[in-house]
Amino acid sequence: MANQKVLILPGWRGSGHSHWQMRWVNQYAYQVVDQHEWMRPLRGDWLARLEEVMSDVSESVYLVAHGLGCIQIAAWAQISAHSHKVHGALLVAPSDVEASHFQDVLSSWRPIELKALPFKSILIGSQNDLDCRAERAAHFAMLWGAQYLSLGECGHLNAESNLGDWPEGHALLSELMKEKEHGH
Question: Which residues pair with 6 in a beta bridge?
């Protein structure tokens, strides 16, 4: 997996040290796309930050997003001058920002971009994610052109889901990276 960079895109409120994303950062030296504002995120700011990070990247990139980070990728991919650098994305537990419980804090994120992503992606959801109903996650996957996998009843697939280092998720990322390496 030489010359392949992995960018971690946490969701709303960021990912704490016990979240699988931060565990992956520590284990594999992946880079986090830090945001200036995690608690009241503005869509334009987050898209600009990802574009800034991607402008400095020269090698092939894989994106690993959680929650709001998935919605960020869907929006960013449609406007970016750098989306061609992305060779794949692992989209985990997207946040349905159009749901009523997100109306106040995530209003700048509506509507959700539903055009197909210009790179291969896998969307992983859960049957009991309070941030996104399973049917909505499957709908996002279909419209984004992503392979959809449900992990059953695992909540929001975050630290509270007790995934630990989440080796199963990392295996999916590794497979995604190998597919591109072998020209699939």
Answer: 62
Residue in this structure with the two tokens 């969701």, named with its chain if needed = 11
Q: What is the pTM of this model?
A: 0.93
Spatial distance between the Cα atoms of 88 and 83, rounded to a whole number of angstroms:
10
Instruction: Count CB neighbours of 184 within 10 A.
Output: 8
Instruction: Identify the band that residue 34 occupies on the pLDDT scale cut at 50, 70 and 90.
Output: very high
Strand order in the sheet with 121-125: 31-32, 4-9, 60-66, 86-92, 121-125, 147-150
Question: Would the pLDDT of 58 be above 50?
Answer: yes
In sequence order, what DSSP letters do the residues of the chain get, joined into one string?
Answer: -TTEEEEEE--TT---TTSHHHHHHHHH-PEE---S-SSS--HHHHHHHHHHHHHT--SEEEEEEETHHHHHHHHHHHH-S-GGGEEEEEEES---TTSGGGTTTTGGGPSPP-SPPSS-EEEEE-TT-TTS-HHHHHHHHHHHT-EEEE-SS-TTSSGGGT-TT-HHHHHHHHHHHHHHHTT-
- 144-171: per-residue pLDDT in tens? 999 999 988 887 777 777 788 999 999 9
Which sequence spans correspond to the domains of the chain?
4-181
CATH number of this structure's domain 4-181: 3.40.50.1820
